[in-house]
Write a structure and sequence with these properties.
Blueprint (H helix, E strand, L loop, with lengths): L19 H23 L1 H4 L11 H8 L7 E3 L5 H7 L3 H8 L38 H16 L11 E6 L6 H13 L3 E7 L2 E2 L2 E2 H4 L4 H5 L6 E6 L3 H16 L5 E6 L18 H8 L3 H11 L4 H23 L33 E2 L1 H15 L3 E5 L16 H5 L4 E3 L4 H14 L2 E5 L7 H17 L8 E7 L14 H5 L5 E3 L4 H13 L3 E7 L15 E2 L13 E4 L3 H6 L3 E5 L3 H9 L6 E5 L2 E3 L3 H11 L2 E8 L4 H12 L9 E5 L9 H7 L3 H12 L2
Parallel strand pairs: 1-2, 2-3, 3-7, 6-7, 9-10, 9-11, 11-12, 12-14, 13-14, 17-18, 17-20, 20-21
Antiparallel strand pairs: 4-5, 8-15, 13-19, 16-18
Helix pairs in contact: 1-3, 1-4, 1-12, 1-13, 3-4, 3-10, 5-13, 6-7, 6-16, 14-19, 16-17, 21-25
């Protein structure tokens, strides 16, 4: 902690070049923040119903940061940042509405914790939703700065203002690997972002010495190009001057800057982890000696203010908090009938358009259809950009799925990233918040796991928890599936894991025409969309997958998400005289089913789901009722899978129409796909195995 200040000097201190009204405003807001924390403690039975944290001890640096943000800036805050919110002009009443989970909570309508803002309001900085996971906001925040720099490079930002991004972090969170990914990209791309690190030397009950050998200022020295600054976070004047320099540095587009602010922790970690449970008297006394409020009061008295005038401001703050508390307490609770609104933002793509098979069209493989779709998007949407591992430069992706794009559109729009799956996924949240539209790629489905944290916590929850203010447009391309000898780290299927994440859409095309139409729809969808692209179908080189190569649709072709497609229909006469069934599948399963169905001509319908979420349940239900037998076919291991879940739903909701139990078929229940091709074949489904399953079900 900083050392205790020395006794007051006899003479008045020299005023810095800060308007005195700004300092007086900060004093009143500091009194406001302190009284809010006291009020919450005095009314624990109400205010501790939901866990909250306050800014006690951090007020000086937070007000210095918040009061200098402009309305055209962007911010990503953390759960202790209530004084930043007061500094930008939020009222105690508004924050208390969130504290109590009230209907008029301006951020989330009672859906998320205190100090978790989602603000899109004229005259205020934009603050997109971010989660409680410490340090995770660094990636979306850096994505915002990245998006701003991209839009500026394309002349797509209106006006002459130079927006910056403020990313606020606790020092304990800087040990998170995702913070390092954000720092790495910020210096690599020289992004206009200020990382404010507030260091109170505690991470819940762990001290700084337990958690790290260096503080954030020292750690950031390892990122070449990161400007650094230390400020006294308990001193408003020093903090204000420091933040002024930091914002100017970023506005002048010199690159990222980290501000390390040492400050005391005067309140509890949270209302659920109280300070007296883990902190000794000596520690509490040491922190209290550098309380920002008496430090600022002392400064104001030394610069000519009177005790009377300061008391008037403190009393005004006290009255405001008291009135706002009563007002918030008596405000209405949320309408429980609205609990499920805003899972997704409404997509504009609701019907199939364009020509699927234009006159004179040539056949293309899936990988080229994807390339052409992205090319069309980039051509018509200057706000779109595409990035990931190895997709830029001359390679254009390890599957050549982005070949020529970098040469055509330049390195600002098509570029390689470091090996950072978390950044690739999470940065799209920031891109979306500033108006850039990112198409990104994870090189193999087996490597998506480092990005799942961002996908779950930041992308999937944003629309719901912000009540529709911040849906995240994000198109994430993921090559998936086994293709013969790819081995355990390049052959996996991950759709069931993804489908357990609410708030994202999952698309899985099986042919070139669908690839192009669904890619366009996924781009225009305002929600996160994961596009699973089977590597074994990319070039139709795997035996039996020739039909994945189709005539190329025109440039206007688009397919709405959530619409299944019958790729094989049963013969009506056969259906009347013999038993028939529907195979419900997607991806490679379509081709196993088509080959297997040849043995049972006219008796098999194949329903290609195309989109796994949203699911075309109406089509599934209609086909099951028509045939009374159903096989759900997947490439994944069956146990606890999407296929098993779908089969269970069919059994429950179509029970009275079934002539046989719903069957599932997929890979063996093993943790990985073996390298040896014969072992792989033994583990995975194929046409012969599917044919046996069809025979058994038809004969039931």
């Amino acid at each position: 902690m900083p050392s205790t200040r020395e006794a007051n000097p006899a003479k008045k201190v020299k005023r810095p070049k800060i308007n005195q009204e700004i300092i007086l405003k900060a004093y009143q807001l500091m009194c406001t923040s302190k009284r809010m924390a006291e009020t919450y403690d005095e009314n624990k039975e109400v205010c501790s119903k939901y866990v909250h944290s306050t800014s006690r001890g951090h007020e000086a640096i937070q007000l210095a940061a918040g009061m200098q943000l402009e309305s055209y800036d962007f911010a990503s805050l953390y759960y202790r940042d209530e004084s930043i919110l007061l500094g930008i002009g939020m009222q105690p009443y508004e924050l208390m509405l969130q504290l109590m989970g009230k209907a008029d909570d301006p951020f989330s309508g009672g859906r998320t914790y205190y100090g978790h803002p989602s603000l899109k309001r004229d005259g205020f900085p934009t603050i997109p939703h971010q989660s409680s996971a410490t340090g995770m906001q660094a990636i979306p925040a850096t994505g915002m700065a990245h998006g701003l720099k991209y839009l500026e490079s394309q002349g797509l930002l209106e006006g002459k203002d130079k927006p910056v991004v403020l990313c606020s972090l606790g020092d304990g969170s800087v040990t998170e690997g995702e913070v390092s990914e954000a720092f790495q990209m910020s210096v690599l791309k020289k992004l206009p972002i200020v990382y404010l690190v507030q260091d109170n030397d505690w991470g819940i009950s762990a001290t700084g010495k337990e958690m790290r050998t260096m503080d954030a200022y020292e750690f950031a020295a390892g990122f070449k190009g990161m400007e650094r600054m230390r400020v006294d976070g308990s001193d408003f004047v020093d903090s204000y001057q420091g933040m002024k320099k930091a914002y100017k540095y970023a506005r002048d587009r010199k690159g990222p800057i980290l501000v390390h602010a040492k400050c005391p922790l005067l309140g509890h970690h949270t209302s659920g982890v109280r300070k007296e449970w883990y902190r000794g008297d000596n520690d509490l006394k040491l922190h209290a000696q550098i309380d920002p409020l008496p430090i600022l009061e002392k400064y104001l008295l030394e610069t000519g203010e009177t005790k009377k005038s300061l008391k008037e401001r403190a009393d005004a703050a006290f009255d405001t908090v008291a009135k706002d508390y009563e007002h918030a307490l008596n405000s209405p609770d949320p309408d429980i009938n609205d609990f499920d609104s805003h899972e997704f933002a409404q997509t504009p793509i609701i019907e199939e358009k364009g020509e699927r098979k234009p006159k004179g069209a040539e056949k293309v493989v899936m990988v080229d259809a994807a390339l052409h779709a992205v090319d069309d998007i980039l051509k018509n949407h200057p706000e779109a950009l595409f990035y990931g591992q190895d997709v830029g430069g001359t390679l254009g992706g390890v599957f050549r799925e982005a070949a020529t794009l970098a040469q055509k559109y330049g390195d600002e729009r098509i570029f390689n990233t470091p090996i950072q799956e978390a950044y690739i996924v999470g940065s799209t949240a920031g891109m979306s918040a500033v108006g850039a539209k990112a198409i990104v790629e994870i090189q193999f489905a087996d490597y998506i796991w480092p990005g799942i944290n961002q996908l779950v916590e930041e992308l999937s929850k944003s629309c719901y928890l912000s009540k529709g203010k911040f849906p995240i447009q994000s198109l994430i391309r993921v090559p998936i599936g086994a293709y013969g000898g790819g081995g355990p780290y390049h052959s996996g299927s991950v759709e069931s894991t993804l489908l357990n994440i609410r708030g994202i859409k999952v698309v899985y095309p099986s042919n070139a025409a669908d690839m192009k139409g669904l890619m366009k729809a996924a781009f225009h969808d305002p929600n996160p969309v994961v596009m699973l692209e089977h590597k074994g179908l990319y070039w139709s080189k795997v035996p039996g997958t020739g039909d994945a190569k189709t005539h190329e649709p025109d440039k206007d072709y688009i397919i709405p998400l959530g619409k299944a497609n019958k790729v094989l229909e049963a013969d009506e006469q056969k259906m009347e005289t013999e038993s028939s069934l529907v195979v419900i599948t997607y991806g490679m399963g379509v081709y196993w089913a088509k080959e297997a169905a040849k043995k049972y001509a006219g008796r098999i319908e194949i329903l290609d789901l195309r989109t796994l979420n949203p699911l075309d349940w109406d089509a599934v239900q209609a086909s099951v009722k028509q045939h009374s037998r159903a096989l759900v076919l997947t490439e994944e291991p069956i146990m606890n899978s999407f296929a098993e879940s779908l089969a269970g739903r069919i059994s429950k909701e179509c029970f009275e129409y079934l002539d046989a139990p719903v069957q599932t078929f997929g890979a063996a229940n093993l943790p990985a796909i073996p390298l040896n091709v014969d072992l792989e074949k033994k583990m995975l489904p194929n046409a012969d195995k599917v044919a046996d399953a069809l025979e058994s079900l038809l004969a039931y």
